[in-house]
Design brief:
The structure holds two protein chains of two kinds. By secondary structure, chain A is α/β, with parallel strands linked by helices. Chain A has ten helices and ten strands. Chain A has a single domain, classed as 3-Layer(aba) Sandwich (Rossmann fold). In chain A, helix 3 packs parallel to helix 6. Chain B has 15 helices and four strands. In chain B, the strands form two sheets. In chain B, strands 1-2 form a two-stranded antiparallel sheet. In chain B, strands 3-4 form a two-stranded antiparallel ribbon.
Chain lengths: 238, 369
């Protein structure tokens, strides 16, 4: 569905991505894990058109989207849940959701989708007239996901959805990701919380300083000695 | 929290606004025209429009622009240039053989021209300037306003702008009064018409703010990156807000020309922009109602209510100390400082009239229980 080939991105003289290639299959949860500065966020930002690559191509459903602007990329069906949630704090929950549907013209379906998001996250419905800035961190994350769902994406990319949330809330977030998958959406997930991400994903890529070093299914990587040592801590075996 | 919006506060506020208009009309027929009240109302209406247009940019889109006086100047000049009666042109443009433009257009058309000219300038200036952020954008737009002021006074453009001489003789607010056959005024409209003009423009701005576009502008204000990630075209929307705001500043400039009866480039200083910025801040950044209220309060304070401070006052046998010319501005500054210190978010915050009504109703309901 999404195919990234030899992607190189540099900020000034520093290469953040040194030629990475990976695939995301339809209907799967694919995760990129790695330490700080490995280039995970840069990868997402490049796919969504916020950063321009120096070399390499990005294909979505067979179409080359490398040179499209963000607006066009959103229109093709790629939504992003940015790092640190970044909801619009001075808009109400409902307005935030409507912004998600900004590029869509199908008014009737938008109303249906708002109800769908409220079904996914009943908490948002309770607070639909509240300003997003007054929500708790977990609720804001739900809103950020809901806002992305409102673009009617085929692929939803999430940048560290568990960042700064309490462990219980993190569990909820991963449940939501599973729910999204069950509705047929494809998810590209970036996580530092490698343990949770590997348990949830179908396929995983491990990034290190701008390169992809390992890949495999979640179980394979969980079982791998090297990964355990580097990302999970040896004692993580229960 | 703020539950689903009921229609009632909305209807009440519309009634209030209608009442204000009727009040203005009645007052105009019975109170002598020389009263300070009308000066305040006319200038207040002009400032209200300009303040709301600035609020659209600074409060709702988060673009901190200080070019308002420049766009008003463009609007005022365009209005003057297209409405001075042909017969008067020889007098007005006495150093430039009657000027280049030798026709006039109706007032409404000239006002639309004013807006379009200001919007065109905004578009051109926006191309380089809107790439800048916050303070840098403010400095660049301020610089633009100063440059415009200098250019309009340039001798080379004299046949159009009358260089540094003033434009006058164009239709003013007083020309809206309906005259009887004997040349006496039968119906006074010189305050109501500016109110209607400002009201229509502000209504258009409010409609824009509440549209999908307006929501996108607010999203940009809150978080540019997230807005872009949602597919909002930043450059396009910022340009739109900049041009629309300037359009209405231009119309406001045309109205200011009508209010002042003369136009001269040197009066459109950056101090004028600061006055408007002050109105926006005092009224509440992000509140249209606040901008409107505070522009009337501001004009009333600076032109009317504090006048007595400039004159010698004797109460009984006691002469009040300190009062002299200029003391008004001292008191005025202190009042502004107090407002800024104690009403951090302005008098209205980001609330609008209907919000206010629904909240006070709720408070009453709670007290009743």
């Amino acid at each position: 569905m999404l195919k990234v080939t030899d992607l190189v991105v540099s900020y000034g003289g520093i290469e953040a991505l040194k030629g990475i290639s990976f695939d995301v299959e339809q209907g799967q949860i694919v995760t990129l894990i790695g330490a700080n500065g490995a280039g995970k966020s840069t990868t997402l930002r490049t796919i969504s058109g916020l950063v321009r690559p120096k070399a390499g191509r990005i294909y979505f459903e067979g179409r080359d989207i490398t040179d499209l602007n963000t607006q066009k990329i959103v229109e093709t069906g790629i939504a992003m849940v940015p790092e640190g949630r970044r909801v619009f704090v001075n808009l109400t929950v409902l307005e935030n959701l409507r912004i998600g549907a900004y590029l869509r013209k199908d008014k009737a379906v938008i109303e249906e989708d708002i109800n769908y998001v409220y079904e996914l996250f009943p908490r948002l419905k309770e607070r639909s007239w509240q300003l997003a800035g007054t929500l708790s961190g977990g609720e804001q994350q739900m809103l950020a996901v809901g806002r992305a769902v409102m673009t009617r994406p085929k692929l939803i990319m999430m940048d560290e959805p568990s960042l700064g949330l309490a462990p219980l809330v993190v569990k909820d977030i991963f449940k939501i990701i599973e729910t999204l998958k069950s509705t047929g959406m494809t998810v590209l997930l970036i996580e530092q919380n490698a343990n949770a991400a590997l348990h949830a994903c179908d396929y995983a890529y491990v990034m290190e300083t701008g390169r992809i070093t390992t890949s495999g299914t979640g179980e394979e990587l969980l079982a791998s000695e090297a990964i355990q040592e580097a990302y999970l801590g040896k004692s993580s075996k229960k | 929290m703020n539950q689903k919006k009921s229609k009632k506060p909305m209807i009440i506020s519309l009634c209030l606004i209608a009442a204000v208009y009727i009040g203005v009309f009645i007052a105009e027929q019975f109170i002598p025209q020389q009263s300070m009240l009308f000066i305040v109302l006319k200038k207040g209406a002009v400032y209200a429009l300009v303040a709301v247009s600035m609020n659209l940019l600074n409060g709702f889109t988060g673009i901190f622009s200080l070019g308002q006086a420049g766009f008003m100047l463009v609007g005022a000049y365009v209005y003057g240039i297209f409405t001075i009666p042909v017969a008067e042109r020889m007098n007005v443009y006495q150093y430039f053989d009657g000027g280049l433009v030798q026709f006039t257009v109706p007032v409404i058309i000239a006002m639309i021209f004013s807006g379009l000219a200001a919007a065109l300038f905004a578009f051109l200036i926006g191309l380089p300037v809107l790439r800048l952020k916050s303070d840098y954008l403010a400095i660049a737009t301020l610089g633009f306003a100063e440059i415009i002021r200098a250019i309009f006074q340039w001798n080379g453009l004299g046949r159009i702008t009358n260089s540094s001489n003033m434009l006058n003789m164009f239709p003013t607010f007083n020309d809206f009064n309906i005259l009887g056959p004997d040349g006496k005024v039968t119906v006074y409209l010189s305050t109501l018409i500016p109110f209607i003009m400002a009201g229509v423009c502000i209504l258009l701005i409010v409609l824009l703010i509440n549209s999908t576009y307006g929501r996108a502008l607010k999203a940009i204000r809150d978080d540019e990156v997230a807005a872009e990630a949602m597919g909002i075209n930043l450059a396009h929307h910022k340009r739109l807000a900049f041009c629309v705001s300037s359009f209405f500043a231009g119309v406001g400039g045309a109205m200011l020309a009508m209010y002042q009866t003369t136009v001269q480039a040197k009066s459109f200083t950056s101090a004028m922009t600061y006055e408007i910025l002050l109105i926006v801040v005092i009224g509440g950044i992000g509140s249209v109602t606040g901008s409107v209220l505070s522009s009337f309060l501001f004009v009333a304070c600076s032109e009317w209510w504090l006048r007595f401070l400039d004159e010698k006052q004797i109460i009984g046998n006691f002469e009040v100390p300190l009062l002299r010319i200029g003391f008004r501005m001292v008191v005025f500054s202190v009042i502004i400082m107090i407002v800024v210190l104690f009403f951090r978010k302005g008098i209205m915050g980001d609330k609008e009239l209907p919000d206010l009504l629904s909240r006070s109703r709720k408070a009453k309901g709670r007290a009743g229980k």
